[in-house]
Amino acid sequence: MPRDIDPTFKSEKSKQENRPIFLYVLEEYDGVNNLYLAGYDQDVSFDSVVYTRFPITHEFVGENNQGRIDQVKVRLANVSRLIQSYLESYDFRGKKVIIRMVWADELSNPDAHMDEIFYIDSYTADQNNVEFTLTSKFDVLGVDTPARRYTRNYCAWKFKSAECGYSGEETTCNKTQQRCKQLNNYQRFGAFPSVPTRRIYIM
Prior knowledge:
This protein is α+β, with helices and mostly antiparallel strands. 21% of the residues are buried. It is elongated. The protein folds into 2 domains: 145 residues, Pnp Oxidase, Chain A; 58 residues, no CATH class. Helix content is 13%, strand content 30%. Strands 3-4-2-1-7-8-9-6-5 form a 9-stranded mixed β-sheet. Strands 10-11 form a two-stranded antiparallel sheet.
């Protein structure tokens, strides 16, 4: 027989402010700065940080029968190509991701949150979505990193390394095609301009 649910309980449960908000932190995506995104219909300010609203979702976070965290998929819209542009400029493998759950009516309380911490194991991008596969730090460290990452515009070589071959006076390089041409070192550019623009490949 169906249970009778108190109308007051149903009303409170349905209130917008009682629903959780998921915030996402991608730490040092470019080696320095963090990316703060909110899976919400407006920007969210929490603990003095503004999380930018963005079409982003993730799978349920659970554990397997060994007590270890299973892989988690995070999907972001790629219509604006914002995230894909980051992927073409920086290597996200191994980057730390925090999935933070907060409550709309407790945003002024910096202690009112629950964090799940993961690391990016791999990712793909097409014209519609970018998808990260996240796993625990232990799993990431146990996976062999691919020998090469095949992107169009981001050089894989360390600046002034033997593979790079640049020996001039410049001290910095953002590893883009344009910068490599400016340094007259394009013949050593460590990327693959022929890779299709609509997908990023991890080999």
